[in-house]
UniProtKB/TrEMBL annotation:
Protein name: Rieske domain-containing protein
PANTHER family cross-referenced by the UniProt entry: PTHR40261, RIESKE DOMAIN-CONTAINING PROTEIN (PTHR40261:SF1)
InterPro entries recorded: Rieske_2Fe-2S, Rieske_2Fe-2S_sf
Matching CDD domains: Rieske
Rieske domain: residues covered: 9-114
Domain of life of the native organism: Bacteria
Record flagged with keyword Aminoacyl-tRNA synthetase: no
Pfam families, per the entry: Rieske
Any one GO molecular function term: metal ion binding
Gene3D superfamilies cross-referenced by the UniProt entry: Rieske [2Fe-2S] iron-sulphur domain
Keyword Zinc-finger: no
Record keywords, A-Z: 2Fe-2S, Iron, Iron-sulfur, Metal-binding
Length: 120
């Protein structure tokens, strides 16, 4: 059994994202790529796997749509679970106390880079 290699993927320039704002990304190809999203808040980026801690499906229905109307929290479109942007902690809804799976992310020379498993 081989372990998946971690790969770096550039999601885009920080300045291209609204503040706060979100963008989806995928790592790898095929039927089961790793899917995630980033949230910009000021000059920080937070990245998570796009996987509901309650129901196990993607958090969003619409592309790049992960935040509440006031853009203060991450929301699961299916069941309304609310997660803190900075920690991924569920603070309301059907899964309080659970967290989203964090993905390593950083800003390098203005580019947002995420790291995750290569599905190839």
């Amino acid at each position: 059994m081989t372990m998946a290699q971690e790969v770096a993927v550039t999601v885009g320039r920080l300045e291209e994202l609204d503040d706060p704002g979100c963008r989806e990304f995928r790592i790898g190809d095929g039927e089961w790529p790793f899917r995630g999203f980033i949230v910009r808040k000021a000059d920080a980026v937070h990245a998570y796997q796009n996987y509901c801690a309650h129901a196990g499906h993607p958090l969003n229905f619409k592309p790049d749509s992960f935040l509440t109307k006031d853009q203060s929290l991450i929301i699961c479109s299916s069941h309304g679970a609310l997660f803190e942007i900075e920690s991924g902690l569920c603070i309301a809804g059907p899964c309080p106390g659970k967290t989203l799976r964090r993905v390593r992310a950083e800003v390098i020379d203005g580019e947002v880079v995420v790291y995750g498993p290569d599905s190839a």
